[in-house]
Design a protein that fits this description.
Keywords: Membrane, Transmembrane, Transmembrane helix. With 57 residues, the chain is mainly alpha-helical. It is built from one helix and no strands. It is elongated and about 70 Å long.
Length: 57
């Protein structure tokens, strides 16, 4: 019986966290988009610098 109550409590906590996640998901997706574009720029810049480095060595 304790296990069953524990599962119900977990379910309520998950529902709460899911609601808060839904509230923050727009901000989270915007942050992820910015982070992904930044990483892409860093990756492209790193490749370019590496290419130049190979040219001059």
């Amino acid at each position: 019986m304790f296990l069953f109550n524990n599962v119900l409590g977990r379910k309520r906590e998950l529902e709460k966290s899911y609601r808060s996640w839904l509230c923050t998901t727009t901000a989270g997706s915007a942050f992820l988009a910015v982070a992904a574009s930044l990483l892409h720029c860093i990756y492209q810049g790193g490749r370019y610098i590496f290419f130049l480095f190979i040219q001059f060595v």
